[in-house]
Amino acid sequence: MSNFELAKKYFFDGLSSIKVENFLQAEYQLKQSLFYVPDRGSTLTNLSLAQLKLKKLSDAKVNASKAISLEPENSEAYLNLGLIERELKNPLSSLEYFQYALNLNPNHHEAWSNRGNVLHELWRYDEALVHFDNALGINPDYHEAWINKGVTLHELKRYEDAVVHFNKAIKLRPDFYQAYWNKSITLLHLGNYQDGWPLFEKRWELASQNTQIGNTLNRVGLATNL
């Protein structure tokens, strides 16, 4: 096999590992791909994704930045940098990187939703709602944005509206227990203990998913072509 064929094999092996959330294996496979064909923006983008998931934030930032130096219009790498900065507790830098991604691709619904998450964390709730609406306008089936908007509505004490949004997320993704958890908290705030407490017990299933409470679910930038 030629170097390119080997790089391609490891690239798609890494892609498959990412999709099943085996990020350690993905990191190894993508590094092997780069060994055979260095300086490939798509491979560096996916490597930064895997390292972000592994909490290797310094390495992830280096590789996402290198991907952008090779491909200045790589919106997925900008998305990953935004998520890295958020993990590093640099919200303003995170907002900037998400905006760069949106400047390159205004229809990037993950960037809209992730930027909304950071605005929520800065207590800029009205702006966050606009961002979630933009994400849903592009992709109405994006269940993460329904959850995230629901959490922001909860913070604004618009509890009935929040429940509607959590219900929509549950309809789109019945196995995603974060929506049930958030819905339970909102129902308890409404005094609906009959429905709220059973959903609250889903925290054990949430723990098995290793999912945090609130609007913290993030999509990372993934390149699917070598």
Structure at a glance:
With 226 residues, the chain is an all-alpha fold.
List keywords for this structure.
226 residues; 13 helices; 2 domains; Serine Threonine Protein Phosphatase 5, Tetratricopeptide repeat; mainly alpha
Description:
This protein has 226 residues and is mainly alpha-helical. The protein folds into 2 domains: 1-77, Serine Threonine Protein Phosphatase 5, Tetratricopeptide repeat (Alpha Horseshoe); 106-218, Serine Threonine Protein Phosphatase 5, Tetratricopeptide repeat, CATH 1.25.40.10. The chain contains 13 helices and no strands. Helix 7 (109-121) packs parallel to helix 9 and helix 11 runs antiparallel to helix 12 (193-200). The longest helix has 17 residues, at 3-19. It is elongated and about 65 Å long. Residues 210-218 have low confidence and may be disordered.
Fold blueprint:
Blueprint: H1 3-19, H2 23-36, H3 41-53, H4 57-70, H5 75-87, H6 91-104, H7 109-121, H8 125-138, H9 143-155, H10 159-172, H11 177-189, H12 193-200, H13 203-209
Helix pairs in contact: 1-2, 2-3, 3-4, 3-5, 4-5, 5-6, 5-7, 6-7, 7-8, 7-9, 8-9, 9-10, 9-11, 10-11, 11-12
Question: CATH superfamily assignment of the largest domain?
Answer: Tetratricopeptide repeat domain
Sheet/helix structural class = mainly alpha
Query: Beta-strand percentage?
Result: under 5%
CATH fold call of the largest domain: Serine Threonine Protein Phosphatase 5, Tetratricopeptide repeat
Low-confidence stretches: 210-218
